[in-house]
Structure formats: C-alpha cells, structure tokens
Amino acid sequence: MKVLVVGANGQIGKHVVSFIKDSNNLEAKAMIRKQGQASLLEDLGAETVLVDLEEDDIDTIAKAAQGVDAIVFTAGSGPHTGPDKTMLIDLDGAVKTIEAAKVAGVKRFVMVSSFDTTREAIQAAPESFAPYVVAKHYADVWLRSTDLDYTIVHPGGLTNDKGTGQVQAASEVERGKVPREDIASVIVGCLENESTIGKEFQVVTGTTPIQEAIKSI
C-alpha cells in the first residue's frame, strides 16, 4: 500500500514516514511544502512531492495523490499561528485534501484530529484555542459525510517524549497526554488494519500495546 503523508515534514509526519519505512506492507509518498525538506524524508525511503497545502488547489493535491492507495492527513498550522492560518490549514487544507482524494480515486483516508471536536468542546475552549477546535470539528464533519474509507484519530495532549508503544484507545477516554511517536504508530496500525475503517477514537498513553488497542476499537 502506497501512502501519501500530508504534513510529512511535521513532527508526527516524520515519525509516520519512518514507521512506514520499517513496514513490509507500506511505502511512503511525502507531501512537502519546500524542496529543502525533501532530503531528510528521502533518506527515510519516501518519494517526495512538492505541494503548498495553503496556496495550491484541489487538482494539484489530487495530482500528488495519483498512484497512492491511502492518504494520511497530519498537517497543522502549529501552535504559534493565528486563527487565519488555522482555518487555512486545519480546515481548508483538510477539506481540499479530502476532495482531492475523491478526484484521485483514493478511498482510504486517515485523519489526525484533535482530542475532542464536539460542539461542547468548542464552547468550552479558551478563546485562543477555539478556532483550532472549530477547524477540526468541521474537517471531521466533512470527512464523515463522504463515502471514503476513513479513520479519525483523536490524540490527547501531544508530547515529544519517546514512544512507549502502549496506549489507551476508545471512543471516549479520560483526557491525558501521548507521545507523537505513539500517535504515528497508531496511524500506521490503522492503515494496516481494515477494522478501523469508518471509526474514530481518542488515544492517550496507557498500558495496552498499540496493535492490540487498535484491534479492540
């Protein structure tokens, strides 16, 4: 299975590409914004394709998705940008990628969302964080409305700690933290396990091995 990783130069994306390299069943195509990002990802065994998620249109993303079997959306505007960038990347970028998957005929789609994207979470979010939750909420709604074979992963508070290989995953779990490396492993596990199609779940650090946790979803 060939996988287009959108946001491949991000912190989760790099881990995803690295895990794909170690997989016997997957190969990575890394979507990047700048040519200078290519060498690191190519060293990880990925083919690279240059697309600006903010500026480029659906057809350009669809061309990048030609020949792949699945798309992972793990792009994000980052914590230090304003609401405008959040909407352009986390909402519009996600929707364009979903629509590009349809154009390219790619059915499998794994979305990295936010821990809680319910209407209640929007209303409870601090003013500075609310645009991010709104963006993720509507990106999730858009994906659910398609006939794509989607999985939506809702990670807890992301850290750069070394992955433990163990998580707690369910439709609802108590809020907690989780290493980005473990979320990347969860993403790859979802790609390799068709039982996650049509499902979404929250993930935090736990005591269950990741593959076992995925099978229990």
TrEMBL record:
The organism's place on the tree of life at top rank: Bacteria
The NAD(P)-binding domain, residue ranges: 7-193
SUPFAM superfamilies per record: NAD(P)-binding Rossmann-fold domains (SSF51735)
Gene3D superfamilies: NAD(P)-binding Rossmann-like Domain
Official protein name in the record: NAD(P)H-binding protein
Species this chain originates from: Aquibacillus halophilus
Native organism taxonomy: Bacteria, Bacillati, Bacillota, Bacilli, Bacillales
